[in-house]
Write a structure and sequence with these properties.
- The protein is mainly beta and about 120 residues long.
- It has one helix spanning about 105; strands at about 5, 10, 20-25, 35-40, 45-50, 55-60, 65-70, 75-80, 90-100, 115, 120-124.
- The strands form 2 sheets. Strands 2, 4, 5, 6, 9, 10 and 11 form a 7-stranded mixed sheet that branches. A 4-stranded antiparallel sheet has the order 1-3-8-7, with no helix packed on it.
- It starts with a strand and ends with a strand.
């Protein structure tokens, strides 16, 4: 059973930075997809960035050049460094993972199987 716990959310001013972390536990195997998704009130959930186990990454156009997704190799921890934050980045951010999808699906930032509880990011 996979468990995901997010941390690092908070409030920041426009132009500021935040770093989100997702601590994962459970069996992942050699091939897996992990990612960050967000949902603002009244909006659909958006795939922000994903990381496949081969090291490939994918970003939404709205965050390219500002956000960086990375994985801690010592343990399965997924990070999202968010710079130059904008008010439109305000949302609940969720960590997600799936060990049954391939790299192509992962790059499209589609629905994943396991989800964390979310952490709020507010930019004002």
């Amino acid at each position: 059973h996979v468990q995901l716990v997010e941390s690092g959310g908070g409030s920041v001013q426009t132009g500021g930075s935040l770093r989100l972390s997702c601590a994962a536990s459970g069996y992942f195997g050699r091939n897996y997809c992990m990612g960050w998704f967000r949902q603002a009130p009244g909006k659909e959930r958006e795939g922000v960035a994903t990381f496949y186990s081969d090291g490939s990454t994918s970003y939404a156009d709205s965050v390219k050049g500002r956000f960086t997704i990375s994985r801690d190799n010592a343990k399965i921890t997924l990070n999202l460094q968010m710079n130059s934050l904008k008010p439109e980045d305000t949302a609940m951010y969720y960590c997600a993972a799936d060990r049954t999808v391939g790299a192509t699906y992962c790059s499209r930032r589609g629905q994943l199987r396991y989800w964390g509880q979310g952490t709020q990011v507010t930019v004002s």
